[in-house]
Amino acid sequence: MKQGIVAERAGFTPQEFSNIMNARRKLLRIEHLHPIACAMGVDVNALCRERKEVE
User: DSSP secondary structure string, 9-40?
Assistant: First the structure.
């Protein structure tokens, strides 16, 4: 899914969402997780899981 679509669905501008995704925004507030998860069609817990490196 493209970042612009997720941003729009979650109520962010494309620039705000890009800053969040690229860690240019130092603080991701807890209340942002639910709109982002809903926009992506996933559970909030899926956003919080660490990615495992492929061995």
Answer: HHT--HHHHHHHHTT-SS---HHHHHHHHHHH
